[in-house]
Specification:
- The structure is a single chain.
- By secondary structure, the chain is α/β, with parallel strands linked by helices.
- Strands 7, 8, 9, 10, 11, 14, 15, 16 and 18 form a nine-stranded mixed sheet that branches. Strands 1-6-5-2-4-3 form a six-stranded mixed sheet.
- A hairpin with a 5-residue loop joins strand 12 and strand 13.
- It is elongated, with a radius of gyration of 24 Å.
- It contains 15 helices and 20 strands.
- Bound molecules: ligand BES and zinc ion (2 copies).
- One zinc ion binds next to strand 10.
- The site of one zinc ion (ZN) has 5 residues, from loops.
Length: 496
């Protein structure tokens, strides 16, 4: 899909559709909407009067062969209240427009930004909206709908003086949107097509193409390094584990800048192990590697955006299977850090592999850590599929991430990390145990477990179990993997 700026006037635009967005303000067409209204002989005012056009959030109104325009269709997307409008709304509006038109076999369209809206951030958000909306999960369907595609989208409303901002925004939006889709594509792969070894190969190929340093540790090297927690999860599977390390080193590092460690859980399939999960819905556990995919995708974007800080991405990849050699409840394992862990539930495996990955990221030089993981079902209870759960050991570092989340339209909510919860994972027979002994607070005890391995290094944990997968399609996004977290992390690193 081509995305470019449109220089033609509205009446001259010949696309299959002209798109803009309408506010829910009950004060008739304003600004560019008033301009469009005039060009079309009062069409918008008439639609508004008849109740077909209200501007309510994500409402769609289509008019065919609109008088006064060369475009074959006019699509108006509701943008909600004007005073609540931001780039996050714009990203969704752009996505809704694309999916609406694509579903109707439209191949080209022009998206008009509203008055005062021709900024770099707007062009970026629109581009991200287009690209992520264009992503489909039909890779393994043999009867793909061949006529449903968008060839070219243009963005109109940028003056000559605003042109360079618009182009910059499009370029940035493309890098981030493509990276997000890259991550979603990995998450979409079923576990028979994406084993730890295949994930490592794909990460390696991406890194080489993007000009990033990459190293993959095999099971032998993992054993040599005494990554006992990762190995304990992997031992139940015939598929060997991998530890994937991707490093971005800036050409002109900022003096005194942090070294960011991005750690992502990549359990390519989580059966639960001997503490096996119920069959119902287990197929979804192919997305238990979404944290790893997010981090690998973020590295792809960072390679192109070239921030001034060093980033080390560490992704432990394994299956969690109940094979004959699988670890059993009560087993005691020694993590790479030397801490001993009593494995009371083999289904709490994400924290085990992250324990070694976080320790290793620190050993490689990370001064600030963020991990992302589909860690707990409890976070789905707490925050549903709306907010990412955020846990942090250092409020200044956590605040930076929360600001980036806000900026990039990813909903995140911080949960408490009181010392009381730490007590829940004190071990009876080893240093710590991998599930809480208290009642409730399952996401927090999971976070505390990982924190034990981050130590004094500022650390943030993102629990994306509820948000990494859309059970239903949204008007702006296909059903399935969301790529959540990537935009926030890329913004965080580039803003340091
Ligand atoms: N991968 C799961 C968490 C999960 C649940 C992800 C639902 C996506 C949707 C994780 O490994 C797990 O099984 N966690 C257990 C922890 C428990 C045993 C303490 C859980 O949440 O039930
Ligand atoms: Zn599990
Ligand atoms: Zn898991």
């Amino acid at each position: 899909m081509q995305i470019t700026l449109e220089h033609k006037t509205l009446t001259a635009v010949e696309a299959d559709a002209l798109v803009t967005y309408i506010f829910d303000d009950n004060d008739g067409p304003q600004g560019r909407a008033a301009e469009l209204d005039q060009l079309t002989g009062g069409l918008l005012a008439r639609l508004n009067k008849s109740g077909e056009l209200t501007g309510k959030s994500l409402e769609t109104t289509i008019v065919h062969v609109p008088a006064g325009l060369k475009a074959a269709r006019l699509l108006l997307v509701g943008a909600g209240k004007r005073d609540q409008f931001n780039t996050s709304t714009l990203r969704k509006v752009a996505g809704v427009a694309l999916r609406y038109l694509k579903g109707r076999s439209v191949h080209t369209f022009t998206f008009l930004v509203r008055e005062d809206g021709a900024t770099e951030d707007a062009a970026q958000a629109i581009t991200e909206g287009f690209i992520t909306a264009d992503f489909e999960t039909d890779k393994y369907k043999t009867d793909k709908k061949k006529d449903k595609f968008i060839d070219a989208a243009t963005i109109a409303g940028y003056s000559d003086a605003e042109k360079s901002a618009g182009e910059k925004g499009i370029a940035r939006g493309r890098i981030i949107g493509d990276a997000q889709n890259f991550a979603r594509d990995l998450v979409n792969e079923p576990s028979n097509k994406l084993t730890p070894r295949i994930l490592a190969e794909k990460a390696e190929a991406m890194a080489k193409e993007a000009g990033l340093a990459v190293e993959v540790l095999d099971e032998k090297k993992i054993a040599e390094l005494k990554m006992g927690a990762l190995l304990s999860v992997a031992q139940g599977s015939i598929e060997p584990p991998r530890m994937i390390i991707i490093t971005y080193t800036p050409a002109n590092p900022k003096p005194g800048a942090p070294v960011v460690g991005l750690v992502g859980k990549a359990v390519t399939f989580d059966t639960g192990g001997i503490s096996i999960k119920p069959a119902d819905g287990m197929e979804k556990m192919k997305y238990d590697m979404a944290g790893g995919a997010t981090m690998i995708g973020a590295m792809r974007a960072l390679a192109a955006l070239k921030p001034q800080v060093k980033v080390i991405c560490v992704v432990p990849a394994t299956e969690n299977m109940p094979g004959g050699r699988a670890q059993k409840p009560g087993d005691i394992q020694t993590a790479m850090s030397g801490k001993t862990i009593e494995v009371l539930n083999t289904d709490a495996e994400g924290r085990l592999i992250l324990a070694d990955a976080v320790h290793y990221a620190k050993q490689l030089g990370a001064t600030h850590l963020v991990d992302a993981a589909t860690l707990t079902g409890a976070i789905v209870v707490a925050l549903a599929n709306v907010n990412v759960g955020v846990f942090g050991s250092d409020q200044a570092w956590t605040d930076k991430l929360l600001a980036s989340a806000k900026e990039t339209g990813e909903k995140m909510w911080q949960l408490p990390m009181d010392e009381e919860y730490r007590e829940f994972i004190k071990g009876s027979f080893a240093d710590i145990q991998n599930i809480g002994s208290g009642k409730g607070g399952g996401s927090i005890t999971g976070a505390w477990f990982i924190r034990e391995f981050a130590g004094d290094t500022p650390w943030i944990h993102l629990d994306i179990a509820g948000t990494a997968w859309n059970d239903d399609a949204k008007p702006w996004l296909a059903k399935g993997p969301t790529g959540v977290g990537l935009r926030t992390l890329v913004h965080l690193v580039t803003s340091l």
